[in-house]
Amino acid sequence: MRCPAGETLRPSGKHTRNRAVRYRTSACKDCQLKGRCTPGAQRTIHRLVDQSALDRMERRIYADLSLMRIRRCTVEHPFGTIKRMSGGGRFLTRGLRKVKAEAALSVLAFNIIHAVNAFGSEKMIGRG
After folding, report:
1. What secondary structure letter does DSSP report for 39?
2. Residue 8 forms beta bridges with which residues?
3. Partners of 48 in the beta sheet?
């Protein structure tokens, strides 16, 4: 990581909660660009641990904009349907373990509805 003046920012800490790394430099005290760079005592940049993967994904999307159309059609429709089925996307339970179970049941219900729509109820029951 480099600041606008070309100084190297070194890792100075990790945020485990949001999976980020903090980069800083001590060269800001004598820097000519400090007024345009940062109002603080030194330049600090937070970068996610997986930021390089996110940057690659963003470059791929901007290189081929049809990828977002495909994503909207294949991925976001199930999530929207599950959200609608579960009353606007709010969980009725509290606690991580119970919310995970509720989410898994919502996905299972969506998959069953999707299978019934694809194959028919007679075939799913075993009569066909």
Report:
1. S
2. 2
3. 20
In which residue are the tokens 């470059």 written?
A: 59
Residue 73 identity (one-letter amino acid): C
Q: Taking the mean position of all CA atoms in its chain, how far away is CA 77?
A: 17
Buried b (16+ CB within 10 A) or exposed e, 66-88: eeeeeeeeeeeeeeeebeeebee
Cα–Cα distance, 35 to 45 (Å, whole number): 16
The strand pairing partners of 11, in sequence order, are 23
The first and second tokens of residue 104, run together, are 């898994």
Please report, in tens digits, the pLDDT of each residue of the chain (128 residues total): 777 788 888 888 887 777 888 888 878 777 888 777 777 777 778 888 889 999 998 999 899 988 888 888 787 788 888 888 887 778 889 999 999 999 999 999 999 988 888 888 888 787 65
pTM: 0.48
Residues in the chain: 128
124 Cβ neighbours under 8 A, 6+ residues apart: 115, 116
